[in-house]
Design goal:
heterodimer; A: 250 residues; mainly beta; Immunoglobulin-like; 3-stranded antiparallel β-sheet; 5 helices; 18 strands; disordered N terminus; B: 109 residues; 9% helix; elongated
Chain lengths: 250, 109
């Protein structure tokens, strides 16, 4: 039987099987976290989001972070952006009454019960991390939390998309360009990596990733969010990168 | 049955104070992020420069990009990425504004 060039994490790691995450998201540095959650602008056109609120008090201080944000359910009137980044949070700018998904990729937050730093990296403990050249693995405050991403070319200005199709690898090269050096061997691919989410509480972030059509006319936004997908709204025939953070259902 | 967390299995997670870790569905993908100040309407975003050589190139061009403006002043042009190559992509956005960028994909190093 042909053997995949990249074994699944479960070959090595009990974490993957017990926590139903299929694989682990690697990172470059130590103490990097991915946290996410929704927020609603209830007054005016801004909302202060603190890490304390976002994590229920588990993380209150993140010295360095990147944040991406996405309005959901309704087309943005005031186009979305972030201001006032600080170690304790940030401000979402957008539309009054609107809900926004936020995803924060943070480095080196001090936990209230911080532990003594160990000089070892993930690759020093874990043969799979070493094989895939993961320096570290990304922390989470939730069990079973998964971040995955896929590309979608929008047909029309509004289209129902589903995770089953978005994560379909059947017979496909993983790379955009056929012949690139990374692919699933025949019979070893997972046809659909995600069929549905465990609930509708996942976060969605969308960015246009093609020059076709020029500047963004309709900033992309998701609506009609269900376990199996959502409606993607944006510019016709444009390619979008979609990031999902939440719990998946097998 | 005792409820275990990832920290109970994974020594790295325990070292870092992680109760749990973030999963993925694709094998081998990593995440990294950086903040970029846009110089012109279209900037070349080179991974080596933005990550201080932690990432020189991606393993393929199928990596995903997320962009959000993080500087003051309402958005005039929505930032987007295009021309994705292994070692760089282009960001179309507003000159002089600051953007947080998150990349997910396989790193070629």
């Amino acid at each position: 039987m042909a053997k995949s060039r990249i074994d699944t994490f479960s070959t090595y790691c009990p974490v993957v099987e017990e926590f139903h995450i299929k694989n682990i998201l690697g990172c470059l540095q130590k103490k990097q976290w991915l946290i996410s959650g929704p927020t609603i602008i209830t007054v005016g056109q801004t909302k202060t989001v603190t890490f304390d609120d976002l994590t229920g008090g588990l993380l209150i201080d993140i010295p360095t972070f990147e944040v991406v944000v996405q309005k959901i359910n309704v087309a943005p009137v005031n186009w979305t952006y972030i201001t006032s980044k600080s170690s304790t949070g940030f401000v979402v700018n957008g539309d009054n009454g609107a809900t926004y998904h936020t995803v924060v990729f943070g480095t080196g937050p001090t936990k209230p019960f911080s532990l003594k730093q160990n000089p070892k990296w993930a690759k020093d403990y874990c043969p799979y991390c070493d094989k895939l050249k993961y320096n570290g693995v990304v922390g989470s405050i939730f069990k079973d939390n998964v971040a995955f991403s896929f590309k979608w070319i929008l047909s029309g200005t509004s289209q129902i998309i589903d995770f089953k199709t978005g994560t379909d690898t059947t017979g496909k090269h993983v790379g955009v360009i056929a012949g690139v050096d990374d692919y699933f061997e025949t019979g070893q691919q997972y046809p659909n990596l995600v069929t549905m989410m465990a609930n509708t509480d996942y976060e969605i972030i969308i960015t246009k990733t093609t020059d076709a059509g020029g500047a963004v006319v309709l900033p992309p936004w998701p609506s009609a969010i269900t376990k199996i997908g959502f409606t993607l709204n944006g510019d016709n025939a444009q390619e979008y990168d979609i990031l999902i953070v939440g719990q998946i259902q097998f | 049955m005792k409820q275990r967390w990832v920290r109970d299995y994974c020594p790295f997670a325990k070292d870092q104070g992680f109760d749990s870790i973030t999963g993925n569905v694709y094998p081998g993908e990593q995440i990294f992020g950086f903040t970029h100040t846009q110089v012109a309407a279209s900037d070349i975003i080179t991974f080596a420069t933005e990550t201080h050589n932690k990432v020189t190139y991606m393993k393929n061009t199928a990596y995903k990009v997320q962009v959000t403006k993080v500087s003051s002043g309402s958005v005039v042009t929505v930032g987007y990425a295009y021309e994705q190559y292994k070692n760089y992509f282009r960001l179309y956005a507003e000159a002089g504004e600051v953007y947080d960028i998150i990349i997910i994909g396989k790193i070629g190093y």
